[in-house]
Known about the structure:
Layout: E1 5-9, H1 10-13, H2 22-31, E2 33-37, H3 51-55, E3 60-61, H4 70-80, E4 113-123, E5 135-142, E6 149-152, E7 169-174, E8 181-189, E9 195-204, E10 211-218, E11 224-238, E12 240-241, E13 244-245, H5 261-309
Parallel strand pairs: 1-2, 2-3
Antiparallel strand pairs: 4-7, 4-11, 5-6, 5-8, 8-9, 10-11, 12-13
Amino acid sequence: CFRDMSSFPETKAEKYVNKIKGKKFLQYNRLQLSRIYPKGQRLDSSNYDPLPMWICGSQLVALNFQTPDKPMQMNQALFMSGGQSGFALQPANMRDDIFDPFDKNTLRGMVPLSISIEILGARHLPKNGRGIVCPFVEVEVSGADYDNTKQKTEMVVDNGLNPAWTPKTFQFHVSNPDFAFLRFVVYEEDMFSDQNFLAQATFLVKGLKAGYRAVPLKNNYTEDLELASLLVKIDIIPLIENGEINPFAASPFRDRSADSPNQLLAGRAREGSLEARYQQPFEDFRTSQEQLSEHFDNRDRRFLRKTRVNGDNRL
């Protein structure tokens, strides 16, 4: 009954959010509301990983909001998609009867993505005790078990004002982009080679946009850090088109010199369709500007004719 809610401590919920019982728990949550809350032994108010509970359909996953950690940062990113209303619609694939949260072969109608990211630079990174920081960036995809992965840049020595990194492409293949997060976490390495947190930014993968992007950085509590940002380049390519694997998308940077003319034309057509999708807003804006300019020109001409007819040419 949708009017009843069952509450589970995290220790009990963890017995259901696994490969053996995950699908049954998801089916249970289609008929029953469930609430997950932290176990009482968390005396430090730390948080558990909410992702397995979310992907198994739990409607209310309670966290310790006073603790600034990765689970809370993902929670903030998830509910940003709902305009911070406190609600987020479950992805359509979670309402599919054959969907298994821990089996990517049950993803029907889902287009996997190949995401290429280059970390180019940063500016105005916060200081952490010392006057000068040695930053590096960790890029992580968090989602279903089969999508979890992380990579990191090299360390830049003694530059927190405007560090720049040697261009290096980080490649991520995301099978379930509807329920995956992309995280940028900036650390500094001290003289003892210990990692100290500086800043972070967390986003839903399905909300990403391709191109050169300035990523505003936030602190542990997901509050904006003044002027702090990363400069990144993002390429997003669907791995499947029209039910077939797209050979041009599996590795967007591969050498195509050996391709046949027909393959090259097909690849350019696909790339053109993706490029057109991202360029369309700019074309719409340019068209609106032209229409607005034409409107004001017509208005000025009518005003000029009117003043001349009245014999009052004050222009």
